[in-house]
Amino acid sequence: MVSREFIQGLPKAELHLHLEGTLEPDLKLELAQKNNVDIGQSTIEEVKASYQFNDLSSFLAVYYPAMNVLQDSEDFYKLAMAYLAKAKENSVRHVEMFFDPQAHTSRGVDFAEMFNGYYRAVTESEERFGISSQLIMCFLRDMSEESALEHYEMARPFFDKIVGIGLDSDERDNPPTKFQKVFEMAKKDGFKLTMHCDIDQKDSIKHIHDVLHVIGVDRIDHGTNIVEDQSLVEYVKEKGIGFTCCPVSNSFVTDDMKGKEMKELLDQGVKITVNSDDPAYFQSYIANDYYELAKKMDLSQEDIVKIAKNSFEISWISEEKRAAYLAEIDAYVEAHK
User: What digits encode the pLDDT tens for the residues 153-163?
Assistant: First the structure.
């Protein structure tokens, strides 16, 4: 069994991280008081007690209302900086962070107000925490493609500050092809593409097929149902398409962290990675996700190191940076022999 200490110190990248999902109870309370937002809770214990859910729908029912405390640029900056401090404790060297503009503009927050707060944290992350960071703008799939297109245009002045475009939220009756037009535009504009293919959804395999063959993504978020179709597994291996898996969050929204599927894909040479998803809600930051998966599946040190290397190999960074991070992992492993 790989030790928690080894995993904690292992250099890693985090590629599936929703900034809005890093809202810890203490910061939620602080921002609620600052902005005079009645959240129905007055203590950290009460906020923690409200973070209860047993599937994706019940999670989202808690998740979106919590965002009401985020009002101005400083709030978004504080949220991102609080996450980056936690990421440093988990030996994260590079992070690609999702943000959901529609969740904020729909409550009257200006796009630039939200974006500038997040981006200010990006500009400070290297110097403050030794972490390189990038932003991925996600569309909410339970909203219309027209809304996604509208927000794509809102983001245009900030295109040079966004690395990729993603798709998240409730997948039921919201297939990837619903957003084909906006993702075609994003691809033409040079963005990297990723989409959530949540676990055990209706039409999971069809959605994964369409994400790969119709949309043409560079990565898939979650996506472990791909094991049900070996031809798709062979395709992602050939193309080097990676998966951003989240074992602890899986175990909250279903009865299974999908460790068996992750190990099967890892053994086949698919570039799976481990990430924390919404760590404030699932009470697990990335090193703990690694540890819980290792414990459940009895992973070897070699498996864990491979997952960490995968995280840099499928990151949207320069080859020079990638080589430096991989060398850092090798040096860490050598020092812990």
Answer: 999 999 999 99
